[in-house]
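Entry type: protein chain
Record version: 2
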Amino acid sequence: MTLYDKDSIRRWVLHVFTPQGLGGLIPACPSRTEQLAWDYLLAAGKRTRPLLTAWAWAAMCCPNERETLRPLIVAVECFHKASLIHDDMEDGDCLRDGRATLHRQVGPAVALNAGDLLIAEGYRLLGECKVDVNRRLALLVAAARAQRKMCVGQGAELAARGEKPLTVEAMIEVFCLKTSSAFELALVLAAICAGADDEILASLREFSRHLGVAYQVMDDLRDVDESGGSSIIAALAARESCSIEAARELADSIWRRHLLQAKASADVSNERLARILSWSLDLVLQTPVSARVPLGALPVASGERGPRPKGQRREGSNFLLP
């Protein structure tokens, strides 16, 4: 795994999420509860958040220090997979990626406990990370703050059900609390371990805020393309008393604005920081998305938009990592 070899880093990250790759991080003889949690962790996934952590680590410090990085990326994925279990239960979803959700397979109580265990394992891994005690404390504080934000965001979303739809501003704030916080944690954990200063940490947080909103809106626009339904489109239509098409146009303008702001946040003089942010944009949004319209032609804050090119429907996994 070399500093600039993203493919090598990706292969190593994917290997970590195998029974062999997790060796030494999990119990040799797990209980049934532990086995269920680890099986869910290893189940198919894009590993977007662990890749963000690994690429940030490689750009900021020695990429060959894998034993320091390994518990970080596993902790990040533990938090993510736990959130999926809990979200599926709270949303009443029966399927995820074409497969029965965990609570449909094993029951709500068992699934809830497995999700809680994954959160606990995430904190354990951070607390046992091989860095000095001050950095370990900073890792735990960062994770706790991110978890808190995600819970507050999920609570706001749940509270709005059956009531007056959220305003655009409130909806964006939910995206910041839930999605942006997860991306921020993935990047900040690596930066803390690498000894990044407050200026770099602040840049990562600002970048993550816009990246998370752009990703979440993009994901909902993708849902419109694939299934004709979308939570943000429906909410905007109800809130603004406008047509679905007009709501889609509004959502698209929000996506464009935050994509540009994320792109602007990545334009920094620090070469290593710029590399992290550029790689993160490519990973989370992918080139086919960021290339939908030339970035220089898009408005930053205006409600006006350039012409929308044709052929922008999501095909296969063009929008997200396979």
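Comment: Residues 198-227 form the longest helix (30 residues).
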